[in-house]
């Protein structure tokens, strides 16, 4: 969640299913499974359409890639292989609260900036902007707080294949000159080291 | 949708909100806005928990990246800038049907393989596997068919910023040695050329 902070926040409200894409910060120490906090535009209809405390789902996505059965040595042996797709995701289920206290919102924009500017040589801070500009901006957003009741990681990195097939997947992915393939190859490799 | 085929399929069923990650194929010519087809494991509880014809949301995600206000020349002028996150997604809303006719499923696994093996020198085909293996495999999956009623693209590539800020974003992203940043830089550049 920290490495891939842009979450997909899904709710089922009066207008049907809705999803927004927003960076969420994870507060592990709060509640049983932690709390996610972020904000969206006040003009976004999603937050008005959900009942307070209703269920929400935040999805965080990591590397993913198509896996060809051609890469499995076991294809030559018995042919009983098919394509699949590897991916890593986290699903956080919980109750959604809408927050619009200015102090809460200010703390949220500060915390998000501090995290996402942390690798900058001269990190931008909320205090760099004129205070009245920030005050007006806070009026244009609402906070979202998801108190997690169920946290599921889905880790599909060829761990169901025999070790030779997993090495074949790594070779196959590494033969593709793409960063997505390289990221997935690294995860398949890590999972072998864990055995 | 073709470039980023691994969709997040979201439904609201008896067990609450559920999401699966599966490659979906878009059939543009069918229905008003087209149809999406794919399959999931029969063991996945999601398909049993939705009523036939109930609403579903398929989300396809493209490049995304944090955007620092430090990159905007307008920061030096007036300071009235804050961080944001750029992203490109497609939301396909529609009615979900569950399909489990063997012919439908075979056609779906064939079509998916043909698309995703198309760049291979020796594309794997369903016919490469023993027929009885495929027959058994089709019993272990169910098809999902989403007839699209609303198709929304969300394209957040700094197009709301003045042109100098957009060039600043491109420079900022290009200064980060990451493929995600490069992909977003290319989209911000494209959007300028479109003006």
Summarize the structure in words.
The structure is a homodimer of 195-residue chains. The first copy, chain A, has helices at 46-49, 73-78, 102-116, 131-139, 163-174, 179-193, and strands at 6-13, 16-23, 25-27, 35-41, 55-67, 84-99, 141-156. With 195 residues, chain A is of the alpha+beta class. Chain A has a single domain (6-193), classed as Electron Transport, Fmn-binding Protein, Chain A (Pnp Oxidase, Chain A), CATH 2.30.110.10. Chain A is elongated, with a radius of gyration of 21 Å. Chains A and B meet through strand 1, strand 2, strand 5, strand 6 and helix 3 of A and strand 1, strand 2, strand 5, strand 6 and helix 3 of B.
Give a quick precis of the structure.
Two copies of one chain form a homodimer. Chain A has six helices and seven strands. With 195 residues, chain A is of the alpha+beta class.
Topology:
2 copies of one chain form a homodimer.
Chain A: E1 6-13, E2 16-23, E3 25-27, E4 35-41, H1 46-49, E5 55-67, H2 73-78, E6 84-99, H3 102-116, H4 131-139, E7 141-156, H5 163-174, H6 179-193
Antiparallel strand pairs in A: 1-2, 1-5, 3-4, 4-7, 5-6, 6-7
Helix pairs in contact in A: 5-6
Keywords:
homodimer; 195 residues; alpha+beta; 6 helices
* Structural class by helix and strand composition of chain A: alpha+beta
User: How many structural domains can be distinguished in the coordinates of chain A?
Assistant: 1
* Largest interface pair: A-B, 53 and 53 residues
Separate helix tally of chain A: 6
Fraction of residues in β-strands of chain A: 35-45%
| Rounded radius of gyration of chain A (Å) | 21 Å
Extract low-pLDDT stretches of chain A: none
CATH fold-level assignment of chain A? Pnp Oxidase, Chain A
Q: Which architecture name of chain A does CATH use?
A: Roll
Number of strands of chain A: 7
- Give the quaternary arrangement of the chains: homodimer
Shape of chain A: elongated
Mean pLDDT of chain A: 95
Give a quick account of the main beta sheet of chain A: strands, pairing sense, barrel closure: 7 strands, antiparallel
Considering DSSP H and I runs of 4 or more, what fraction of the residues of chain A is helical? Answer: 25-40%
Output the strand order for the largest sheet of chain A.
2-1-5-6-7-4-3
């Amino acid at each position: 969640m920290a490495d891939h902070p842009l979450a997909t926040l899904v709710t089922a409200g009066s207008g049907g299913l809705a999803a927004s894409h927003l960076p969420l910060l994870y507060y592990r120490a709060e509640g049983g499974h932690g709390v996610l906090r972020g904000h969206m535009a006040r003009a976004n209809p999603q937050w008005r359409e959900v009942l307070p405390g209703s269920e929400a789902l935040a999805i965080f996505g990591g590397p993913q890639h198509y896996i060809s059965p051609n890469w499995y040595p076991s294809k030559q042996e018995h042919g009983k292989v098919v394509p699949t797709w590897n991916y890593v995701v986290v699903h956080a289920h919980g109750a959604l609260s809408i927050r619009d206290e200015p102090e809460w919102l200010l703390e949220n924009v500060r915390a998000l900036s501090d995290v996402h500017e942390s690798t900058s040589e001269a990190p931008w801070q909320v205090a760099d902007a004129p205070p009245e500009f920030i005050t007006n901006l806070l009026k244009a957003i609402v906070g979202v707080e998801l108190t997690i009741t169920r946290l599921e990681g889905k880790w599909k990195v060829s761990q169901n294949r025999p070790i030779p097939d997993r090495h074949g997947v790594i070779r196959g992915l590494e033969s593709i000159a793409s960063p997505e393939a390289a990221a997935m190859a690294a995860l398949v490799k890590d999972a072998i080291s864990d055995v």
